[in-house]
Amino acid sequence: MDIVSTSDEQMVAIKPICEALGIDAKVQRQKIQDDEDLNSVGMLSTSTGADGKQYEMYCLPTEFIFGWLFTINPRNVKEEARECVRKFRIECYHALYVHFTSRAIFVEQKQKEIDSQLTIVEEAKGNFKNAKSVLFDAETKLQKLRKLTMDDFDFERRQLKLFN
Fold first, then answer.
1. CB-side exposure of 152: number of CA atoms within 13 Å?
2. Per-position DSSP letters for 91-125, written without gaps between them
3. Of 37, 101, 112, 121, whose CA is between 20 and 30 Å from 60?
4. 32 with 84: CB under 8 angstroms?
């Protein structure tokens, strides 16, 4: 890609790309100019050609090149570039999918983990409540056992009967 810097923005000449793909640069320039989004960002800019000379070429900002390339049908490019264009488009489809579904996937996975942790917390609370009850009962019985006297033992006919 021939990159041209204009102020803060890097521009890419479309002609060398079109030549590499075997498509008509004039047709692509017209296609860009007919596009209501791309026409406002495309511009003529001085760029260095393959021969090292300066030429005025039609350019797009770097951030728009990939979107423009995505619009090129692999059937319209030369045979040796077809597979590369097709793979590029597949990668774009994937990148768009990831971009537009990542938030939903994150929210779904996060909610699933929250639900899982809530189940663990509720189970632990139940176990804790049960453990408190068991502890209370054991401490109560222990206190009764400590207070037990020999007279109580004899009264119960030599049997430990604490828990009536």
1. 10
2. HHHHHHHHHHHHHHHHHHHHHHHHHHHHHHHHHHH
3. 101
4. no
CA distance 89 to 14: 18
Q: Is the pLDDT of residue 7 over 70?
A: no
Task: Check: CB of residue 29 under 8 Å from CB of residue 44.
Answer: no
Rounded distance, CA 13 to CA 3, Å?
A: 7
First to last CA, the chain: 92
Q: What is the pLDDT of residue 158?
A: 76
Q: Tell me the pTM.
A: 0.62
Question: In this structure, which amino acid lies at residue 69?
Answer: L
Residues 103-133 have pLDDT tens digits of 999 999 999 999 999 999 999 999 999 999 9
Count of CA atoms in the C-beta half-sphere (13 A) of 147: 9
Cα separation, 75 vs 157, in Å, equals 103
What are the pLDDT digits (tens) for 47-101?
Answer: 777 788 888 999 999 999 999 999 999 999 999 999 999 999 999 999 999 999 9
Which of 82, 83, 88 has its CA nearest to residue 67? 88
Strands lying side by side in the sheet with 3-6: 3-6, 9-13, 54-61, 43-48
